[in-house]
Amino acid sequence: MKIKAVCFDKDNTLTAPFATRIHPPFESAWKECIAVFGGENIVLVSNSAGGPDDRDGIEAAAIETALGVRVLRHGEKKPRGAETLLAHFVGLKPAEIAVVGDRVLTDVVYGNSIGAFTILTRDIVTREGDNRVASAVRRIENWVVLPLLTTVFGVKAVPPSDKL
């Protein structure tokens, strides 16, 4: 199945934490992503912007203006509420959506809960300004959860393919 839409986590995947600007080394890739998929087929899902803590969607609106794509409005923090993502991409099958993020227990679980293709970014944008709890949990995910998934449960990464 071919990927037709992409859902990105924002903080430490595309931007520095709580920033509204694409991390400079990613700017050309971001433009290419928009050119390939079209802005209407890209959405950001953040536990800060567009979520229950973003009163009146003010942060989401600022990010939409800055980055040129929609921020999904959702009532539950990841990893819950992925059905909202499916409702956003009306007519697409879950396997036609890629979810990209820096956290196993939020972003990857979020995408996997609906059967989307998930991509874990192991290198984050920056530790500066990162949420302390998120940073600590990310370390546990990378040092404990990922090795357990691969050695105990036999989960294997799918090699990159030009068929995406």
From TrEMBL:
A Pfam family the protein falls into: PGP_phosphatase
Gene3D superfamilies per record: HAD superfamily/HAD-like (3.40.50.1000)
SUPFAM superfamilies: HAD-like (SSF56784)
UniProt GO molecular function: phosphatidylglycerophosphatase activity
GO cellular component, one term: cytoplasm
InterPro entries per UniProt: HAD-like_sf (IPR036412), HAD_sf (IPR023214), PGP_Pase (IPR027706), PGPP1/Gep4 (IPR010021)
NCBIfam families: YqeG_hyp_ppase (TIGR01668)
PANTHER family: 4-NITROPHENYLPHOSPHATASE-RELATED (PTHR19288), PHOSPHATIDYLGLYCEROPHOSPHATASE GEP4, MITOCHONDRIAL (PTHR19288:SF25)
Protein name in the entry: Uncharacterized protein
